[in-house]
Specification:
The structure holds 2 protein chains of 2 kinds.
Chain A (H helix, E strand, L loop, with lengths): L6 H5 L2 H19 L10 H10 L4 H28 L2 H4 L1 H21 L6 H15 L5 H9 L6 H32 L3 H4 L2 H20 L24 H9 L4 H19 L6 H29 L1 H19 L5 E4 L15 H6 L1 H4 L6 E3 L2 E3 L13 H9 L19 H12 L5
Antiparallel strand pairs in A: 2-3
Helix pairs in contact in A: 2-4, 2-11, 3-4, 4-6, 4-11, 6-9, 6-13, 7-8, 7-13, 12-14, 14-15, 18-19
Chain B lengths: L2 H9 L2 H18 L11 E5 L9 E11 L2 E12 L5 E4 L10 E3 L4 E3 L6 E2 L5 E3 L8 E2 L1 E4 L2 E4 L4 H6 L1
Antiparallel strand pairs in B: 1-11, 2-3, 3-4, 4-9, 5-6, 6-7, 7-8, 10-11
Classes of the chains: A mainly alpha, B alpha+beta.
C-alpha cells in the first residue's frame, strides 16, 4: 500500500502529522489544566497568569491555540489524501476514523475557544448559542442544553470545559485506540506510523514550535472591559463559518453551520457502505474545499479592505500588546475562616470588617481603646435619623450628623454600593 | 526481530523524542512550584491596654499571602500570653496542624485531633507534638500589640 521512494510516499505522512499534532494537543492541554480554573470569576485571571507569570506558559498556550488550528487543517488534508487513495473502499476503519477525528477536532476547537472567558471567548459562546437556537425543530431545546440554563452563565463555562477537556478527548482517545488496535490486527502499527511519519510529524511540530514562540496566543480584554466597538474573530479553522454566516439570513445560519456539516460528516462516515462513493465524496469534499478556501480568503480580505474594521482590529492588536506588558493582576480570595470562629449567618460585609470593625467591634458591639470609647452600633436603627439612607449619608459626611473625629468620611474609601451594604447590615443589628 | 530492524525502529522514533524533549522541558519549568515568600506585614492583634490577667487571650488575625494567581487572605487564631510578657503563640498545633483550644478548667491548651496538651505558657505537656506552641514575632507599636504571621511549616523549617 505504501510507496517508499517517491514524493507520493511523503504525501502519505498526513497520518504522522495528525498523530503528532494530536499528541501535542493532549500534552499541552493537560499542562494548561494545571493552572486553568473553569469559573467565570477566575478563568481570565488564570489564563493571564499562564500567559504572564508561569515559565513557558505563553509558549505552551500558544502551541495549544495554534496547534488546534493546524490540526484542523492537517486532518482535513488527511481526509482528502485518504479520498485520493480510495481508502473508503480499501480500508474502511482508516477512513471512518479520519472523518470522526475531523468532526471531534472541530468540536474541541469550538468548545475550547470559550474557556479563557475573554471578550473573544464570550462572543464565540454567543455564536454557539445562536447556532443552537437557530436549529430547526429542536432549536430552543438545543440552546438551553448547551448553555445549561436559559442564559449564558457560570454553568455554561463548566459545560464547555467538561466537553473540551473530558468528553471530547476521551472520545478521540477511544477512536485512536480503536484504530491502533485494528491496525495491530491487520496492517501492523509500523505500517500505520513509519519513520517518514515520525519525521514529517516532527518537522511540522518544529515549525509550530517556532511559530508559537513568535506569536503568543491571543487574549482579548475581559468580558466586562470590552467596549461596544470590540470586534471578535474566531480561530482560523472557523473563519469559513464566520464569513458564511454574514451572507446567510437568520436561522438558516444554523443549517449551514451545524446541520449541513453534520450531514456531510455522517454521509462520509457511511461512505464505505454507499454506492457511487467516488462521486459522493468527491462532490462533498470538493464543495467543502472550495467553500473553506473562498470563505476564509473572503474573511481576510473583508477585514483588510474595510478601513474602519481594519483600524479597529489593529487597535485591538495594539491593546492586546499593551495588556501583555502590564503586570499580572492577582485575584483576591478569602480562604476559610479559622475553625473556632463562630461564623454567624448574615455576618458583616467585607468592607465593614476592613474599615469599621477596628473601632466599632467585629459585630458592631463597640470597643474601648485606651481613653477612647467607640460607640456600639447595636440598636442604632431605633435612634432618630439612622435609616439606611441616613447611614449612607453619614458615612459620607459624619460632621453633618453631629459626629466628632475620629469618625471620618468614607466617601473616598467606599463606593456607594459598599456603604449601602454596610448600612443595611447595621440597621439589622440588635433587632433580634 | 533482527538487530537491524530493531535499531531501525528505534531510530525512527528519534524525531519524536525531540518533540517530547521540548515539551517535556517546558513542562518542567511550567509546573515548577512557586515558593511565595512569607509576608512580613505587621498585623494588629490588640491594644496593649486590654491585655492583662493570667489567662491566654484568643484573638484572630487576617494574614495576606500571594499564592499563585491569587492573593489569599486567611483568618488565623492566635493566643496572647499576658503572663508571659504578651508573647503571641499560633493556635496551630505543631504536631499535624489542627487548632488547639484553651481549656479554662484544666488550665491548658488541648488539641482536638491527637490529644497533644500544652501549658498556659505554650510549652508542651504531653501528646504526640514534639515541641510547644510556635511563638510569632511580636512587637508593640503605638500602644498596639502586632505580630507577623508565620505558618507552622515555615516555623518548622526555620
Amino acid at each position: 500500500m505504501r510507496s517508499d521512494n517517491d514524493i507520493y510516499g511523503w504525501l502519505q505522512t498526513t497520518t504522522g502529522i495528525v498523530a503528532v499534532l494530536l499528541l501535542v494537543q493532549f500534552l499541552t492541554g493537560v499542562l494548561l489544566a494545571f493552572y486553568y480554573v473553569p469559573s467565570v470569576d477566575h478563568a481570565y485571571t488564570t489564563v493571564s497568569f499562564i500567559e504572564k507569570v508561569v515559565s513557558s506558559g505563553s509558549w505552551l498556550r500558544s502551541l495549544h491555540h495554534y496547534g488546534s488550528q493546524w490540526l484542523s487543517i492537517f486532518i482535513f488534508l488527511h481526509v482528502i489524501r485518504l479520498f485520493l487513495d480510495r481508502a473508503y473502499a480499501a480500508n474502511r476503519i482508516q477512513w471512518i476514523v479520519a472523518i470522526l477525528i475531523l468532526g471531534l477536532v472541530m468540536a474541541a476547537g469550538g468548545t475550547g475557544y470559550s474557556l479563557p472567558w475573554d471578550a473573544r471567548a464570550f462572543f464565540s459562546t454567543r455564536v454557539a448559542e445562536g447556532l443552537m437556537a437557530g436549529l430547526p425543530v429542536a432549536g430552543g431545546l438545543a440552546r438551553v442544553w448547551l448553555l445549561g440554563g436559559s442564559e449564558i452563565s457560570p454553568v455554561t463555562l463548566s459545560r464547555f470545559f467538561a466537553l473540551h477537556v473530558l468528553v471530547i478527548p476521551a472520545v478521540i482517545g477511544t477512536v485512536v485506540v480503536w484504530r491502533l488496535f485494528r491496525a495491530k490486527l491487520t496492517e501492523g502499527i509500523a505500517d500505520l506510523f513509519g519513520p517518514r511519519d515520525a519525521i514529517a510529524g516532527s518537522v511540522v511540530f518544529l515549525v509550530l514550535a517556532l511559530w508559537a514562540l513568535k506569536y503568543p496566543a491571543p487574549l482579548g480584554p475581559p468580558v466586562a472591559e470590552a467596549g461596544a466597538d470590540y470586534l471578535p474573530r474566531p480561530g482560523a479553522q472557523f473563519l469559513w463559518l464566520y464569513q458564511s454566516l454574514k451572507y446567510i439570513p437568520g436561522g438558516l445560519g444554523s443549517v449551514v453551520g451545524v446541520v449541513l456539516p453534520g450531514i456531510v460528516l455522517a454521509v462520509l462516515v457511511a461512505l464505505p457502505w454507499l454506492k457511487r462513493q467516488r462521486l459522493i465524496a468527491g462532490l462533498l469534499l470538493g464543495i467543502g474545499v472550495v467553500l473553506v478556501v473562498i470563505m476564509t480568503t473572503a474573511s481576510y480580505l473583508s477585514d483588510r479592505r474595510d478601513p474602519k474594521t481594519a483600524q479597529q482590529l489593529s487597535r485591538q492588536t495594539a491593546q492586546e500588546e499593551a495588556w501583555r506588558r502590564q503586570p499580572f493582576q492577582p485575584a483576591t480570595i478569602t480562604l476559610a475562616a479559622a475553625s473556632t470562629s463562630g461564623s454567624t449567618a448574615g455576618g458583616p460585609p467585607e468592607m465593614y470588617t476592613k474599615f469599621c470593625a477596628n473601632c466599632h467591634g467585629s459585630q458592631g458591639q463597640g470597643a474601648q481603646q485606651g481613653p477612647l470609647r467607640f460607640p456600639p452600633l447595636l440598636d442604632v436603627s431605633a435612634k432618630p435619623h439612622r435609616s439606611v439612607d441616613d447611614i449612607v449619608s453619614l458615612l459620607k459626611d459624619p460632621t453633618n450628623y453631629g459626629l466628632q473625629p475620629p469618625m471620618r468620611s468614607f466617601s473616598t474609601k467606599l463606593t456607594e454600593e459598599q456603604m449601602r451594604q454596610i448600612a443595611e447590615w447595621i440597621v439589622k443589628l440588635g433587632q433580634d | 526481530m533482527t538487530v537491524e530492524t530493531s535499531r531501525r525502529s528505534f531510530l525512527k522514533l528519534l524525531p519524536l523524542a525531540a518533540v517530547f524533549a521540548s515539551i517535556g522541558s517546558a513542562a518542567f519549568r511550567f509546573l515548577r512550584p512557586r515558593i511565595s515568600a512569607a509576608t512580613d506585614a505587621w498585623l494588629d492583634v490588640a491594644p496593649v491596654s486590654e491585655l492583662a490577667g493570667p489567662q491566654p487571650i484568643s484573638r484572630k488575625i487576617v494574614a495576606e499571602q500571594i499564592s499563585g494567581w491569587a492573593i489569599t487572605t486567611e483568618e488565623h487564631n492566635v493566643f496572647i500570653l499576658p503572663a508571659k510578657n504578651n508573647q503571641v503563640v499560633s493556635a496551630i498545633c505543631p504536631h499535624e496542624g489542627c487548632e488547639v483550644a484553651w481549656e479554662q478548667n484544666t488550665n491548658r491548651f488541648s488539641c482536638p485531633c491527637h490529644e497533644s496538651y500544652f501549658a498556659a505558657d505554650g510549652s508542651r505537656i504531653s501528646g504526640p507534638a514534639r515541641r510547644g506552641l510556635d511563638s510569632l514575632p511580636a512587637r508593640v507599636q503605638d500602644g498596639k500589640l502586632q505580630v507577623q504571621y508565620i505558618s507552622t511549616e515555615q516555623a518548622t523549617r526555620a
